[in-house]
Amino acid sequence: MTRDIIQAETANTETMVDIFGRGFADDPMFQFLSPKPDFARFVFEMTTQNYIDLQCSCVDRAGGGATLWQGPGQHVKEAVEFKAIWRGLKRFGLGTLIKLLRVDAVLSKQHPNKPHYYLFAIATAVDARGSGIGSALMQKTLRQADEAGIGCYLENSKSKNLAFYQGHGFKVIREFQPLKGSPTMYLMWREPISR
Prior knowledge:
Blueprint: E1 5-7, H1 13-23, H2 28-33, H3 39-52, E2 58-60, E3 65-70, H4 82-92, H5 94-108, E4 116-124, H6 133-148, E5 151-156, H7 162-167, E6 171-176, E7 185-190
Parallel strand pairs: 4-5
Antiparallel strand pairs: 1-2, 2-3, 3-4, 5-7, 6-7
Helix pairs in contact: 1-3, 4-5
């Protein structure tokens, strides 16, 4: 089946937040940060538009999946609306938000010093899993990276996803716990492939 993978736009934000919120609800790191099942959705409500603005993220036109990418030399806006922070404090508590900021700070320091594409998130809708949508989403940006001769980097806390990433050329370069008691994070790198 051919997938219609397009560059994500503001009009796709709500669909993407829904895909990521559901896709990361069982993610070990999100569960460590908060046991509440809507925490992942909260995080993606705050971050998705900032990644879309970088014009590297993709979505399946039919809503089967999405990615959030950061291109070489790009930086995600850190601006978060006060009302979102207030909502997060009321719903999840100060301790959860502090843990989130601490994990983010530790992971940010692990990024390679050379230019790279960074995959912040990839998720597929539950009913689209196993249909090849994840691979189609990955290939769109991986082709761009290969054509530019630039590597790709990601962090993963779900060991069962390692084979998927390895199938796309990523290799684990480090395993560590960003905070005491947190799940293991697998830092992964992919060298560009000559096509």
